[in-house]
Amino acid sequence: MVDEKNEPAGDHQAGVAGFLARKDIEISFQRYAIDALSAMAQGLFASLLIGTIFNTIGNVSGVTVFNDIGAFATAVAGSAMAVAIGFALKSPPLVLYSLVVVGYAANSAGGAGGPLAVLVVAIVAAELGKAVSKETRVDILVTPAVTVGLGCALALLAGPALGAVATAIGNFIMWATELQPFWMGILVAVAVGVALTLPISSAAICAALGLTGLAGGAALAGCCAQMVGFAVISFADNGWGGIVSQGIGTSMLQMGNIMRKPLIWMPAIVASAVCGPVATCVFGMQQNGPAIASGMGTCGLVGPIGLYSGWIADGVVPGAFEWIGMLVVCLVLPAVVSWAVAFAMRKANLICEGDMKLD
């Protein structure tokens, strides 16, 4: 006999699963913590970060049009993040356009921790919008109403709390780094550097936590160590193309090789552990540009540009000490340390030719 009591529950579960599949709503770590987070970083890059770069150019050159462009770009950071997240979640057009309003609301409500508020609120609003999309004959009204209405309501209700949590965590990390610059310099540099190479966004993490100051300098050092480190130690396998693609592009390109042979990650991790405390204890390097720059490393030279924009914003006139610190921490030390560790590992046959070959 068939258990009739269980049949409706099974049908209901199948119905829910079928509905989610039809709407392309995938509740998973990959979709929300990797795809959405990485997309959020791109939205930040295309608004807040590029705006800061234009603003820095304006401050240095005295050409105010650059400052105007920078102001326009930074003003829409919340909207840019939300639309990027919606795109990563494969939202239909009406949902995607509605997220412009939701992102603005969440970023405003979240305050200093706005990026985290945008991440959470935009994900929920996008999925709710997708759920109702094209389910009625008045989709042109229903989909924006649900996405904007519920998204903004959530932003107003949860945004301040989410922003406060992100700010508290970021402030704690920065406070701890000020208190223990050596050990926290190592911890922050290694953790953020590893996140940069993993298929998640170190830039979005730093932005969500508002990681600047001495902790931002340690994070920047760790990220530079990963990118420059892999570029240098894989030169025999990838040549100058590898130098550019990893040193100015991303060390994430090595993830496939790392999965096959995790030991190849050791030189870059050691370089991060060395560069972090050198940045905090020797040069007192503070990254006071946009928090996203702390997690960008040498990608497009965004990290060093963020460092410089922080100097300008703080009224610091960089001298030889500051420029040497940037050069040593972001380029020279990562290259030397990673090369030395990789050389020793090759002598011990722990790293072999072809281990870091990029496709």
Secondary structure blueprint with pairings:
Elements: H1 6-22, H2 29-61, H3 64-75, H4 77-88, H5 93-110, H6 114-132, H7 139-179, H8 181-197, H9 202-209, H10 213-233, H11 235-249, H12 255-260, H13 266-282, H14 291-294, H15 302-313, H16 320-347
Helix pairs in contact: 2-3, 2-4, 2-9, 2-15, 4-5, 4-6, 5-6, 5-7, 6-7, 6-9, 7-8, 7-10, 8-9, 8-10, 8-13, 10-11, 10-13, 10-16, 13-16
Question: Notable features of this structure?
Answer:
single chain; mainly alpha; 2 domains; 0% strand; 359 residues; 16 helices
In brief:
The chain has 359 residues and is an all-alpha fold.
Account of the 3D structure:
By secondary structure, this protein is mainly α. It folds into 2 domains: 24-167, no CATH class; 180-347, no CATH class. The chain is 78% helix and 0% strand. It contains 16 helices and no strands. It has helices at residues 6-22, 29-61, 64-75, 77-88, 93-110, 114-132, 139-179, 181-197, 202-209, 213-233, 235-249, 255-260, 266-282, 291-294, 302-313, 320-347. The longest helix is centred in the middle third of the chain and has 41 residues, at 139-179. The model has no long low-confidence stretch (mean pLDDT 90).
